[in-house]
Amino acid sequence: MTTERTQRIAAVNRLRALLIAGGVNISLADLVREADAGRLFGVSTRTMRAWRHAGTGPKAVRVGGQHRYELAEIAEYLWQEAEEAAESGRTDVAAADEPNEHGADSHPLPRIARK
Question: What percent of the chain has pLDDT above 70?
């Protein structure tokens, strides 16, 4: 298994732990509600919906008529955002290797979600 793949799996596990610690219900298939995904990003459900319609943000799946977000998709989106931020000098997301409360090889999360 490659180092990057291992890091991404660890990122999903840290994301899962962060959400559980925040009281978010996660399905057995690692799906979270749109409102909970929005809380993670620090945006409203309306913004999550707008991102979904615009084709930006993490990919959503429909389950029973409701939109849900897979933890792996959220982690992948955050990972890509962190890489783009590092390349462009943006400071609104953590760098993929920036230490935080989750460990030295940290999971990239929006700064607002890490408070």
Answer: 77
